[in-house]
């Protein structure tokens, strides 16, 4: 099977074959996959009616996987992962957000590291339904943003944020409720 090429794309490369984009969704460019090394059966899954806009990058290691729900807007985040990132439905992720569970997600060249049976995979990063992630926020390993949660601009999160909770600061702390 030939990997698809985006008709509107300025970057002369196909979208990786293990990327699934749902009906009504839009992807700005195959440039988003410049450092994409996922060898998972489906390295990126995008639901219905989701927009993935300019400056969004998927820097996935061989074991990296990102799952994005329906009706989401991604306005330029960077995903740097060797694990799994799960994003719910109706999520807004602003520009310059970094979702990183590993500082070195992509090995150079075509080398695929053997994680071995004793290696624990990196922690999963999860973003619940209806969450908002502010500009320049950083979500590190262990970050779990509950449904309806709001992460303020430039906030650094590495813990579980309860549903309908607002966090801000570096390191993040709870500053309010969103209901």
Can you describe what's shown?
By secondary structure, the chain is mainly β. 0% of the residues lie in helices and 32% in strands. The radius of gyration is 16 Å and the shape is globular.
Quick check: average pLDDT?
A: 90
Task: Bin the helical content.
Answer: under 10%
- Spatial arrangement of strands, main beta sheet: 2-4-7-10-13-16-19-20
Query: How many strands?
Result: 20
Tell me the structural class.
mainly beta
What is the helix/strand order?
EEEEEEEEEEEEEEEEEEEE
Radius of gyration from the alpha-carbon trace, in angstroms: 16 Å
> How many helices?
0
Main sheet makeup: 8 strands, mixed
Beta-sheet strand percentage? 25-35%
> Regarding quaternary structure, how should these chains be classified?
single chain
What is the approximate shape?
globular
Question: What is the straight-line distance between the termini?
Answer: 47 Å
Low-confidence stretches: none
Question: How would you describe this structure in keywords?
Answer:
179 residues, eight-stranded mixed beta sheet, seven-stranded parallel beta sheet, 20 strands
